[in-house]
Amino acid sequence: MTGGNESCTAGLTSMSYLTCLTYILEEWTGVEDIGDYLSYAFYILWLLFPLVVVFVLPGVIVILFYVSILWLHIYKRKNEIKEAYSHDAWIGAREVVATLWDGHGRLWHGYELHGVENIPKGPGLVVFYHGATPVDYIYFSARLHIMTKRRCRVVADHFVFRLPG
Fold first, then answer.
1. Which of 60, 61, 68 is nearest to 93 (CA)?
2. Can 104 be counted among the known catalytic residues?
3. Which residues cross the membrane (predicted)?
4. 3-state class of 20 per DSSP?
């Protein structure tokens, strides 16, 4: 840069925004060749990105568990919209929690539900595999509730019933 308080585009040659930012950081920190340090930092970030993803996804799922539980607890305590739903006060809470989990399933995993028309109107049995956590059942029941307004009962391992909420 030609002067201390001139903008990057006011010089003799125009430069990109990142080059300008590099020059500003060099002047501000007093470190020469800060671009080398930044490229090393970006390399370390790119190298550790899979590790971050491995810890972020389960963390988001745990946070969503607790957000759902907190929402249902607050809803139970502050049940002020009972007049709107005279027959069942929990309809609004179910809608919010189902929308929250359906959005998470669609964004993180691209979860879709096909063949809902094959589920009988009366009782039926849906058998599916789940991994270490029952997240796929949560996605299934949330999407089923949004599409058909039906609830799905579960026959599962003891782990599912130990989840708070």
1. 68
2. no
3. 43-72
4. helix
Predicted TM-score (pTM) of this structure: 0.52
Alpha-carbon distance of 90 to 120, in angstroms, equals 25
Q: Are 104 and 63 in contact (CB under 8 A)?
A: no
Helix axes 135-148, 91-104, angle to 10 degrees: 120
Whether 6 is covered by a domain: the verdict is: no
- Give pLDDT tens digits along the chain (165 positions): 444 445 565 555 566 777 777 777 777 777 777 777 777 778 888 888 888 778 787 788 888 888 888 888 887 777 655 555 556 667 778 888 898 899 888 888 888 888 888 888 888 888 777 666 678 888 888 999 999 888 887 776 777 677 665
Residue 82 lies in a domain: yes
Token digits for 80?
Answer: 């002020």
Helix (H, G, I), strand (E, B), or coil: what is residue 70?
Answer: helix
Per the domain annotation, does 66 fall within a domain? Answer: yes
Q: How many domains does the chain have?
A: 1
Distance CA 152, CA 164 (A): 18
12 Cβ contact partners less than 8 Å away, ≥ 6 residues apart: 2
Out of 73, 109, 114, 130, the active site residue is 130
